[in-house]
Design brief:
Blueprint lengths: L24 H5 L14 H14 L2 H6 L3 E2 L3 E2 L12 E3 L16 H6 L3 H18 L3 E3 L22 H16 L4 E7 L11 E4 L2 H8 L1 H8 L5 E4 L3 E2 L2 E2 L4 H11 L5 E4 L7 H6 L14 H9 L5 H17 L17 H14 L1 E5 L13 E5 L24 H9 L4 E5 L5 H6 L3 E2 L9 E6 L10 E5 L2 E2 L12 E9 L5 E9 L4 E6 L2 E6 L8 E7 L5 E9 L8 E7 L6 H9 L2 E7 L19 H11 L3 E6 L15 E4 L7 H9 L36 E4 L8 H7 L16 E3 L3 E3 L2 E2 L5 E9 L5 E11 L10 E10 L4 E8 L6 E3 L4 E3 L3 E8 L5 E9 L2
Parallel strand pairs: 3-4, 4-5, 5-7, 6-8, 6-28, 7-10, 12-13, 12-25, 25-26, 26-27, 31-39
Antiparallel strand pairs: 1-2, 8-9, 11-27, 14-18, 15-16, 15-18, 17-24, 18-23, 19-22, 19-24, 20-21, 20-23, 29-32, 30-32, 32-35, 33-34, 33-38, 36-37, 38-39
Amino acid sequence: MSSLKPLLTLFFAAASITMAPAQDAASATASRPQSAPASHFVSDGEADARANALLNKMTLEEKIDMLGGVDGFFTHGNARLGIPRLKMTDGPLGVRNFGPSTVYAAGIALAATFDPKLAEQVGTQIGRDARAKGSNFQLGPGVDIYRAPMNGRNFEYFGEDPYLAGKIVAGWINGLQSQGVIATVKHYMGNNSEYDRHNTDSEIDPRTMHEIYLPAFEAAVREGHTGAVMNSYNLVNGEHATQNKYINVDVLKGEWKFDGLVMSDWDATYDAVAAANGGLDLEMPSGRFMNRENLIPAIRSGKVSQATIDDKVRRILRTAIRFGMFDRDQQDITVPRWNEEGREVARQGAREGIVLLKNDGNLLPLDKAAIKTIAVIGPDAYPAVAAGGGSARVQGFHEVSFLEGVSNALGTKAKVLYDPGIPGDEDIALGSGFTTAAENGKDGLHLQRWTNGEWTGAPAAESDGPPGVAPSSGSWPPPPPTTYRWTGYYIPKTSGLYRWYTKAGGSDSYTLWIDDQKVLEQGRHEGQVPQSKDMQLEAGHKYKIRFDYRQQPSWLASGVLLGVLPQDKWVNQAALEMAKLADAVVLCVGYDAQSESEGSDRSFALPPNQNELIQRIAAVNKNTIVVVTSGGNVDMQSWINNVPGLFEAWYPGEEGGNAFAELLFGNVNPSGKLPATFEKRWQDNPAHDSYYPNDSAHGPTAVKYTEGIFVGYRGYEKNHTQPQFPFGYGLSYTTFKIGSVSVTPTNVAAGQDVTVSFDVTNTGQRPGAEVAQLYVGQQGASVPRPAKELKGFSRVELQPGQTQRVTLTLTPRNRSYWDVNSKDWKQEPGQFTVYVGHSSADIDQQVTFTVGR
């Protein structure tokens, strides 16, 4: 038997391979502008002519070859016709592939800025980074709606509100494409969970689809003029997105007049003929289905038309020509890959995106002069956690941690103490003390490995050692399934409460038995967050261990770890002693690229041991400031009332540590606002009862969007449920007041715009920025409508005492709902209320207007 060398530590290196209603009435109805967008380096007419000329010279075989990718991240070229192969790079947080790059604040953090101009700057810098690497397509941005906090990819997206998401995505795309790089908005559509994403069927009614889940994609097309759209893995109302004629042909290419290309997510194509007829233009990363073998017979039999194939090739060629990719070298060697401008934009994204959620007794900002000793504690304090995992994880040249940021800010004027607060994976593995046999066994457990996907037959390899296994390399195509079994004993030296700890990749599964009793289990697709179980153990008892682990085929790297420690070892004593000595504690908790990533959802609860860490640190230092790194809300109920300071940092990018320190010490005034409602309990969420499907043994599993249009703050208001923090909420070190609102006209014709004006005043003592938010609600509508919906906002920078007048426009589309009978937007006559305030729950002013027939 060949030997295995299990690792002590587990390392997940993720190797991945609607329109928000416009404020301009014209943009709400026009499918494309009269003049070509700035991103078009070649006019539409010339691009069409050149694409058709090439198309006429291509053989059928050459055309079909163009419909599938090659070498992981490239399209097929054609040397005979001078067609270049086009290079693609992930993703929404920066240029992930082909070496290090700038890491920008995550999409959810960018949405928290409520700053479309900053989103455009981020897009511009990502475009520059892409040109420095010679990339033609940037596989981003992501705009799937935040439906529940556990979605493993929420951190990539722009929150729960389609209007906000639409404005951010339009700015991002315009910036990126101005640099000659094609944006690829994703994942179209209904990809609002990572749980079993290839098989779940998002059942969304037409009104909900058009009002909540389509608008951000529509904004990407109509306002951002995106060059490409990426289909998602899941099914939508019974058809996989890559072969869903309704969303791809009827809506995207028909209703919105999208003339770019539709590509699949990697390995998201399932049927050649259905995909060809269902609107997919480019299958990635290869033509596994859309190839000569499948499509030529389909064309000859009439199942797929020649015109359908030509349209796909024309879209690919026309888009590349339009962006100038036939006329220049895509790699611009004059653009620095170490991008100082990009680094500053990344820092600004973190500055504006980090949200101050709690500041009891005005503890913050901390006074540098009063700080003699500060403790920076927690698993996310160091190293930097710039991004979540999967295809969005960018490796920066240098990523600044919270520890480094605080230390940079204080210099030598104060002591900065550090401890991770809880044991790391290596500490857990080293401290476990397993033995392969009850008497005279070797250290560790006995490991058997099978390559048949089961635990039967002769194992392919056996060895003894610590119960951990190295991650797969994340190769493409995915490796075959592998199963592992560890057996042996655990013999505690002392009696007491012990905590068992297990950690595995989100698509992997495992079961832990102790004395033949099932203790911990992770089913496939159920999450990457570690699990734990407390048990009373007796000294000297020989506890029998069996740990079965199945490593699923995946291009996402994965691995597993098992450990056990006495309960008093799960919070580091050194951290508690440091907290007692410090004038203040910055306690950094949350997730990372291992525990929050694509491919699976995470838990609502923080990873094991972190709640206990917060409770124990807060008990010994009354000036504890918690900083959460996550893509969305977490369960705070066990500690929220015991900490005076709380920041939501999201995934703040490579400059997150420096930006956070600026906010902590008051060099910058916090201005971030929540782009998603933070519930007190997961049960309070409007999607709670239908977020996960009822698993079935065969076929796709239905996810019924039973909350309909009442997702996020719309649902909390409808259900009269008080959240922990409402949508749009965020504290500042100064105060703001919104003056009386004027609406012109107050009696509006059906097709007429409404102008809303109001003053915003900084009534405090510090300069700062406020996001004034405009919501609209209709009284007495014939269909259920939300009490209020975000339809405008303005980020206003003000000095103390300064007032600025803000004017926003409400179009007929802003006041309409999707009518399922006419299959169009409908505005009913009647009374509407405009609400202007600081969040969805904090309204300063309101005024009504009437829409006539």
